[in-house]
Amino acid sequence: MRYLEEVATLELDVTRCNGCGMCMRVCPHAVFRLENRRAVVADRGACMECGACARNCEPEAIRVRAGVGCAAGVLTGLLRGTGPTCDCSGKSACC
Amino acid sequence: MARGDLSWTDGTLDTEAGSVPRARTRLDLRDRLGAVKARWGIGRMDYSVSPGLYAVGSPGAPSPVLVSANYKLSFDGLRGVLSGRDAWILVLDTHGINVWCAAGKGTFGTDEIVRRVRGAALDRVVHDRVLVVPQLGAPGVSAHLVRQRCGFRVVYGPVRVEDLPAFLDAGMTAGPEMRQVRFCLRDRAVLIPVELVMGAKYALLPAAAILLLGGLGSDGYSLARVRATGLPGAGLILGSFLCAAILGPTLLPWLPGRAFAIKGAALGLALVGVWAILGWPGMSAPVSWLHVAAWTLIVTAMNSFVVMNFTGASTYTSLSGVLREMRFAVPAQISGAVVGIGLWLTGLFVRGGGGT
Questions:
Q1: Helix or strand run (H / E) with residue B130
Q2: Domain count of chain A?
Q3: Do B237 and B336 sit in the same domain of this protein?
Q4: From the list B176, B259, B316, which residue is nearest A48 (CB)?
Q5: Measured between CB atoms, which of A27, A65, A70 is closest to B322?
Q6: Contact B131, B150 (CB under 8 A)
Q7: What is this model's ipTM?
């Protein structure tokens, strides 16, 4: 199953990459591949912007606006006047 | 530390850093009933275990340390695959939220890992200073920062807990298939109950409104019409919601389009098609075409909205994508619902209150 292509905010600065392969290990959608000991974005359209790669990239070669792709969270954020959120202050329905 | 319900333990284990409860690896009826309740959203936010260190089997200094969340469904999933093994389980305080969602919020994160490693004096319990963290915890955890701050090396385990034994047996290595999330029929089906429970508010309120408004007509308000028009109308709203919440997740890969709002709208139109083929049950004769148009808009808008909200439960939607689809979908859904209800009300007066 694939979602909207060409929307992900993922950016990889190959010049900073040290080829450790951590992004490949943490990505749940096989977005990265190693080529000549450097990471490349092999499948940008599959990126769900979870942010695991950027958080685990020691040389800080990866940037992405991490968030949760949740329409209810976006609506909650709009109603509360905050950004998109899946945080719930109460004990009610929450993911 | 007070640990609450420990019915799923069978004693304690003495370690260099004190006594540690030992978790059983066989889930009993109580655990399974608890899982069913949580899936239906009953007490889901309180279905937790106390954070801290636990033992499985008879672990010692060389045994692996497996990190988990304190949502009991997550913890049970983990201990359930460890039968016959010796391991430590380090439970983080994620406020009773599962690993992936908690990682997105940051509660399953670097700070909490470092705090729990120190709190459990883990460096006195194990030799290897390795933590096996579920891969889906990675959005909240910086492996290199954990190492810098407490000296423990993070090894990311597989996405699915059932792959964990194979991962451990393979010397803590995971093949590509262990690293990818899926969203197969079974994964989607288990989410349906909570979709029904959490989405019910979107259906019950409009259904109640339709029920009451159904009494309106050019000759004033009539209770007979509430029964003849309002009641079937409320039924249509509830039926439409049930279809969206059950068929949406079930048929997700086969519904046309990428955007969930489009998939939902397609499902809504298909439902109207089926309704037409069945001869518009619930609609009083002669069929009001104003009301056919009204219900087509309402059912389509509602299905679009309910399926769009399933993005949060899916495993592959991005925030950018959701924002993109909502930019066109939400105005369309609101317009559809408003115009639909307008047409439906007009129909009540035009026909003197006839029709659903």
A1: strand B130-133
A2: 1
A3: yes
A4: B316
A5: A70
A6: no
A7: 0.93
For residues B100 and B190, state if they share a domain. no
CA distance B181 to B345: 46
- Residue B201: φ, ψ to 5°: -65, -30
Q: Domain residues for B328?
A: 186-350
User: Cα–Cα distance between B281 and B60 in angstroms, integer?
Assistant: 67
CA distance B205 to B136: 36
pLDDT tens digits, B329-351? 999 999 999 999 999 999 999 86
Same domain membership, residue B226 and residue B296: yes
Which tokens hold the place of A8? 């992900």
Size of interface A-B (CB pairs under 8 A): 143
Instruction: State percent of chain B over pLDDT 70.
Output: 97
Q: Which amino acid is at B33?
A: L
Same domain, B29 and B134: yes
pLDDT band at B356 (very low <50, low <70, confident <90, very high): low
Q: Domain end: B147, B181, B215, which one?
A: B181
Measured in Å, how far apart are chain A's first and last C-alpha atoms? 22
> Are residues B152 and B24 part of one domain?
yes
Q: Is residue A52 part of a domain?
A: yes
CATH number for the domain harbouring residue A18: 3.30.70.20
Contact B15, B123 (CB under 8 A): no
Tens of pLDDT, residue by residue over A7-47, are 999 999 999 999 999 999 999 999 999 999 999 999 999 99
Mutate: best of B136, B310, B320, B326, partner A, most A CBs <10 A: B320
Q: What are the chain A neighbours of B191 within 8 Å (beta carbons)?
A: none
Here the tokens at position A81 are 């006047």
Domain count, chain B: 2
The reply to whether A27 falls in a domain is yes
Residue B224's CB: how many other CB atoms inside 10 A? Answer: 10
Q: Per residue in B49-64, pLDDT tens?
A: 999 999 999 999 999 9
**Inside any domain, residue B356:** no
Full residue range of the structural domain in which residue A51 is found:
11-80
Q: Mark which of B148, B181, B214 sits at the end of a domain.
A: B181
Residue A27 near residue B179, CB atoms below 8 Å: yes
